[in-house]
Queue: 2 jobs
Job 1
Amino acid sequence: MSTTTKTSKTEHRITVRSLERFKSANQPITMMTAYDFCFAQLFDRAGIDVLLVGDSLANVVQGRETTLPVTCEEMIYHTKMVSRGASRSLVVADMPFGSYQGALTEGVQNAIALVKEGGAHAVKLEGGRSMHEVIARIVGAEIPVMGHVGLTPQSVHKMGGYRVQGRGITGRERIIEDARAVQEAGAFAVVLEGVPQDLAAAITDELVIPTIGIGAGVECDGQVLVMHDLLGLNEGAPSFVKQYARLGAETLKATRNFIDEVRERKFPDPEHSYE
Ligand code: KIV
C-alpha cells in the first residue's frame, strides 16, 4: 500500500511539523479542549490548530473535584468522538493519571491505545525531569508527545493545591529544567501552565519546540483554554481565563423559554407540528 497518497482528509491536516513551522514563522498556535463530536466539529471548522482531549473532562464533563479519577477507557471514549469531528485540527489526547507514571511498558501501551483506538495523533502527559524516560519511550514507539510543566493538575496533592508554580529562584530553575528535560526527551511541544509570564517568556525563547501557555502570559508560542471556560459555560472561571461568549447564560435563557412555552401550551405551535 502506498504511504504517499494524500486523501482529502489528511491533505490540510495540521501536524506536529506544522507546529514547528508556526514557531519558526512566529505564528501563534491556537489550542482548545474538546470532549465530543459536536464541539470538535465546530472548533475544527472555526480553524483551531490543536484540539486537546483534556483530562479536564473530569471537572467540566464529569463534575469531579480533580482530574485524578479519569481512566484510559474514558479518555479513549472521548478521543474517538473528537477525532470523528476533526478533519483539519491535530488531535492530542491527555494521558490520565496512573496511565504512565508506573511501568514504562504500560505507559507506552496506554499511549498506543489512545492513538490506535481513540484516533489521537499525539498524546500529552504531565511532568518534566521525572518523565524524561517515559516520554522518550513513547516517542520511540512513533507517537508524538506534548509535555506539560508548571502547574500540573495531576500533582494537586503534592503541590498542596492549584497554585502558581516557578516563583522564587529555585522554583524558577526547577520549571526551566523540567521544560528542557521534556524537549530533550523528544517532545514536539510543551504546555506551560500557571507560571509567571517572564518565566514562560524565557522558556519560550530558549526552547526549540513550541510552548503553549495557559495562565502563562502572552509570550508563549501558542495559547490553550478549556472550552467551557472560553465559552462561558462555567461559573467561577480562574482570573487568567477570558470568556469569549456567555453560553451558560444563553442556555439558561433558552431552557427557561422552553419550560414557559410548554407550560403555557404555546409549544408546539402549528409551524412545529405535523398535519
Ligand atoms: O486537561 C486539560 O484541559 C489541560 C489543559 C488545561 C492544558 O491539560
Job 2
Amino acid sequence: MTTQEFLGKENFNIQSTAVSESCPSNIALIKYWGKYKDQIPANPSISYTLNHCKTNTTIEFFANESFSVQTFLSGNEEVNFAEKIEKYFKNIEQYLPWILKGKYIIKTENTFPHSSGIASSASGFGAIAKCLMKLDETFSGKNSEEESLQKASFLARLGSGSACRSLYNGLVVWGESDEVNGSSDLFAVKYADDEIHPIFKDFNDWVLLIHEGVKSVSSTVGHGLMNTNPYAERRFQEARENFVPMKGILKSGDLTGFIKLVEHEALTLHAMMMMSDPAFILMKTGTLEVINKIWDFRRETELPLFFTLDAGANVHLLFPNDGSEEQIKSFIESELLQHTQKNGVVKDVMKF
Ligand code: DP6
C-alpha cells in the first residue's frame, strides 16, 4: 500500500459534534529507534499493547468556525500540546480534507500517573487518531472496520511513531519485515495470534517508576541523533535480523530465548544513546541496581523475571503468569520497589 490509498474523500458534510475514544499504551520488545522523513521507521519493531495504561480522549468539533485547537489534560489547559496538535492536523489535511474547517476542544486524561514517564504519546496519539476516524465516518461516510483501524494506525504514526502500534491488541508489528506478512512502514499490523505460543498471551508488565518527571532528552531528539551515529546502520540491520529468532521464539514458546533477545534489545537502545554525539544517558543508578538484582534473582531461582526499557529510566518488569508469578511478585515488592522514587509501580498485564 502507498500513502495515496489513505487520501481523504473530497465530498464531506461537516457538522458540530463530539466523539470519545480510548487507547492503550504499548511497550516495544524489538525497538524503533531512528527514522526517516515522514515518520518512516529505520527498522521494524514489535510491541505488546498494554491492558490498563490508557488515554481517554474527547474531541469536541465546532463546524465552520476558524481553525483552532485547545487542549486540556486532566482538566488543566496545555498550550504546548495544543500547538503540537495544530501542527499535526495541518500535516494530515490531505488524508482528512475537512480537518481544518472548524474549532477543536480536546479533553484528555491518562489512567496512569502523569509524571510516571510512561509513554503517553503512544496512547495519546492513538486515541486522537481513533477520534478523528470517528469524525471522518460522520462527515465522509463509513469505511469497513478494518480500513478504519488501518487508517487510524496510519494517522497515529504521523503523530508519534510508536502510537501506530497501540491501535491493535496483543503483539503488534510496525515496519516492513520479511518475517511478517503484510507488515508496512506506513501502519502497524497485528502479529497473528495463532503464531504465538500461549505462554506469551498472559504476561505481566510492572513498570518500576525509578525517576518521575521530565526526561533530559526527548524521544524525538534521540531519534534524530541516530542520523549521525556511526553504529546506526548496524543497529538497524540487527533489529531487522532479530525478527528471525523472534518469530521462532514466539511460535515455540522459548522463554529463555525471549528473555535474552528482549533484554538485548533494551540494552542496545540505551547503548545507542551512549554512542550518540552528543552522548546521553537516560538510565539512573536505580535502573542499574534493578537490572543487576534481576540477573542475580534469575541465576539463583531460574524464575522468568526479566526487563525491558523504553527511552527513560523506568524499568518494565516482564514475567509470565505461569505459576511462578507469586514468588516473582514478592521479590519485586521486597527487593526492587526500594529503588523507585516514591514506591511507584504501575501494574499492567497483557492478556489476549
Ligand atoms: C524507545 O514513538 O515516542 O519507545 O515517533 O518521535 O514520536 P516519535 O518517537 P516515539 O519513540 C519511541 C521509542 C521507543 C521504542 C519503541 O517504542 O519502539
